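#onboarding

Welcome to the new folks! Below is a worked example of what a typical request in this channel looks like: someone posts a single protein sequence, and someone else replies with the predicted structure as tokens. Don't worry about understanding the tokens yet, we'll cover that in week two.

Example request:
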Amino acid sequence: MVRSAIVAALTETSPEVAGRVWGSNPQVELTQGMIAIGAAAHRGQPVEQPIFDKIYSAASKAPLAAEPYLVRGVQAQLAGDAQLAERAFQAAERRDPRSLPAHYFLADRYLREGDVRRGLTEFAALARLTPNGIASVTPYVASYARDPARWPQLRALFRSEPVLQENALEALAADAHNAEAVLALADSAHRNAHSQWLPVLLTALVREGEFGRARSIWANVARVPSSGDLLFDAKFANDGPPPPFNWDLTSSTVGLAERQSGGRLHVIFYGQEDGPLATQLLVLPPGHYRLAMHVSGTGPEAKSLQWSLTCAGAQAPFTASGLDALATRPLTFEVPAGCPAQRLSLTGSSTDMPQQVDVTVSRMALMRVAPNG
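Example response:
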């Protein structure tokens, strides 16, 4: 009993001491054998046969140990016997379902022979068993998701591994070219306004200049009804769909912008830093438009706030108006040709003598008008 307790306590941390206490213990023999194999591999030398004999001897004393089968599987791989290697790794996994090497070798084996379903299932097991495993496995899953022929197998995998699905979809969404794969693989539980992959994919599409496609996907996934409105959530009452086609409201050292009941946007600008307070990406075709709103709480200090429209990718706005001016008259502007998307922003500009601005915007409306309207 004493020797068993010492071996259990010291085999992994101090195998030399455990060996001196009970050298013929199978766990000690297996540990020493695995260490010897690792040392030989590190030196680039072949493993001597007595080491294998020692491991196989231990296997006869501990038939439930996975290590001898891992060793046998690696031996078979090196000898070019893939089928024997697979059987050995399967035997190791049956004896120790938490064996990381068994899952890894089987995943590699299955994927090499084109059995994507079983290969990815082994990767999913690795993800569950290792720290930060989901993040480690996700790139492999994402790479296979790019092939439409593998989508049925991936859907089956995702049904049993919903967390892996979330991470794989988010990884795929970072590349705009994967939009079709993301939409095809996202089930109903992972296809809504709160899906983590949705803002990632929208950002990627916008970065590639695919504004129309991005907005179409946004509306479809977030279940935004078709209304023909040029400005989304003009009443500041719907925070479900994510930016950039909904309001992106600031809560930072620049200030605070928040929805309020009654269709209002409450804005506090601290006056110490420049920056945006409310932003939305529009996809207006070229033409003439009018932006109107009701503003309350304005004073001389409101001059530090302005609404502007900037073509996506441009630095300077093509039209702008101070909030104090918009409080008395609408802003009429023209969207120029070659401007497929426009960023509507309420921004604050600091002054030498910072003053806090507290205003409320309501009854906001954007409409298309005749050239002289």
